[in-house]
Specification:
This protein is an alpha/beta fold and 535 residues long. The chain contains 22 helices and 15 strands. The chain folds into 2 domains: 316 residues, no CATH class; 100 residues, no CATH class. Strands 6-3-2-12-13 form a 5-stranded parallel β-sheet.
Amino acid sequence: MSSTPPYTVTPLDYSVTGYFTKLIIDYLKGEAGLKEFYEHEPAMFSVEEAILTKRNQKLYRTELADALLKQYGGLLNEEGITHKNILALKKENTFTIVTAHQPNLFLGPLYLIYKITSAIKMAEILNEKYPAEKFIPVYWMGSEDHDVDELNHISLFGKRIEWNLRQKGSFGKYNTESLGALIDALKGVAGNSPHTDELIQIFKSSYLESKTITEATRKLVHHFFGDKGLVVVDGDDIVLKKIFQPVMQDELLNSNAERLVNATIVKLEEKYPVQVKPRNVNLFYLKENLRERIVREGAGYKVLNTEITFNQQAMLSELKNHPEHFSPNVVLRPLYQEMILPNVVFIGGGAEVSYFMEFKSLFVNYKIAFPVLFLRNCALVIDKSSEERMAKFGIIARALFSDDEEVIKSFTLKKAGGSLEMNEERQELEIIFQQLKSKTLMFDKTLENQIAAEQTRVLKFIQSLEERLLKTEKKKHENSIQQIRKLKEKLFPDNSLQERHESFITFYLTHGVKFFDIIHEAFNPFEEKFTVISL
């Protein structure tokens, strides 16, 4: 592989970015009050602990490996790393490092790439650290998700590219035959970039030569990450769901998830907002063109928004004969994932790490090992033109995370040589008023409040004067200030993190596969730092 182009990395504490919750910041700091909600500290030595607890869990290695080979079909080369990794799952010394996400169209926002890369990088580090074990990176593809409005589009150069065909049911089962026109439209937005034709061909071979979004996403992810040994797992599998069948039956009969998770939420929400709340039945009914919630109705069950009903006996019979018709929601999905996989580490975004903490008692109840929770690598990628603009205006990486007006104020003050701020005058006034107070109160103590009020009035006048001078100075640099606003909007679309809006395509068009190499080199999930990458 050719060397990656030059780039620089600036690590930042997550706390200084302003984009992460108190729970996540406290978790990374090891806050004592959170420790009852997870099993292992987010540290390398915890992986050894997790291996020991995982060995005590009943695993289904052969069934898993065989199901995965069937899922991949003819996609794998028997000499390839991914094929070998799947076979290795049958061995007792093999463990997984898993991340999870839905099959967004064209891989969606950047953070899916970051999740996958974090898992791959951690597996590599652990394989070097613990050669007696084998660690395999896994992308658990949430193909059963039906939130089409979240999954059917990408953002590229500020334009929304959306698949408007409305099918029903789980997004992973959507037929891809109508995507040709959208791929052509994507090409028009991409323009004549160095890697446009290459990327369009990858998309066409992935989507137009596949029957479903699930199949296409597996191909696309394998194309980019198969050489790293990444294994894609689709939980929408009859063999795997048969393994999870006892938990789903218990959920239908006893609603343990609601009871256990709500008990945890009561304690957790004393200090932190909770991410998800359990339902009485945390399962969907899943068939062709259908994924709807199962709810209790009298002594039986109903599938919401349909005419489908079951009495208890019929529902249990349906589960026994067709476990593939049942789909865990966000509360049971982590349990399903960890029951199926020989997993020791879960790498997720802030919301995922947070809601995993709500579910610890569920894992205990079903005797399933709780994984080490790691925050995935989060990043801001600064392209060359943005980097040049930052240099022009004297803006450093950390300052980018300040409020727009703070960035603009800092720039304006620098241009004015700092002469707009009257800190020295404030200090002198403080001395003068102290002297006035000392002299006056010797004769009349009732004047103390009047002196204090006068001091406040003068300080307000100084502040008002500073604001007027700053406003005047800003007018001199209106063009530069407008460019700063555009820079901030480009790097933080809708005042949010870039990774939640921008597609990997933005950078791939210029750098090709080397963009993935840069991300791979820059990330280390054990460091627990926000990564600013300047290209």
